[in-house]
Design a protein that fits this description.
single chain; 188 residues; alpha+beta; 8 strands; 40% helix; 22% strand
């Protein structure tokens, strides 16, 4: 439940950061934008390069983490915004007529073995990247800015899932959990 709430809240926060008074914070951090770089996550896919040749694509519907093979993205891991149910996806479609700019296709549960290990590793990398981004936001714009973003979301169930002060550590803890489960060392 906390993972789902954190991801839903993160997407809200990214939408706040896109509209930052000094300019689009996602672009300043190093994300690239497909479509309207001044738009929200419902009109734009933001992509961030991750370690070991992976990319994380963020949109209103969730995160897609994939490896880069040449000039194209391979099969990858999709985390729905609502549900946080890690799925494998054959491809992602960038189709403006679909109502969302990022749409994962042919979703299925990861197979046990190497595919499950890859899925968990991809999630761990992505969540650590989200933690690093949040750390950067606080260092650059201050904790008061991030608290203000959360103050603007009255009525959201995830508003108090963790405080603005605890967001970085919450993402790191969740990323560490996926990294441990990837190697077979699960927390009991």
């Amino acid at each position: 439940m906390q993972a789902e709430q954190l991801l839903d809240r993160q997407i809200w926060l990214w939408n706040c950061d896109i509209k930052h008074p000094s300019g689009n914070a996602l672009l300043a951090y190093g994300f690239t934008a497909t479509r309207n770089p001044a738009g929200t996550l419902d009109t734009t896919v933001y992509t961030l390069a991750l370690p070991v040749g992976r990319r994380m694509l963020a949109s209103e519907c969730g995160l897609y983490i994939t490896k880069v093979q040449g000039n194209r993205l391979s099969e990858g891991t999709f985390l729905r915004r609502l549900g946080f149910d890690p799925c494998r996806a054959d491809a992602v479609a960038d189709d403006p007529t679909a109502g969302m700019p990022l749409r994962a296709e042919h979703l299925r549960s990861p197979h046990a073995g190497p595919e499950l290990v890859e899925t968990r590793s991809a999630i761990a990398d992505a969540l650590q990247a989200v933690a690093a981004y949040e750390e950067w936001v606080i260092a650059r714009f201050g904790l008061a800015y991030r608290r203000g973003c959360l103050g603007d979301c009255a009525g959201r169930s995830w508003r108090t899932v963790v405080s603005a002060d605890e967001t970085v550590s919450a993402w790191r803890t969740l990323g560490d959990w996926f990294a441990r489960t990837e190697t077979g060392v699960e927390q009991s």
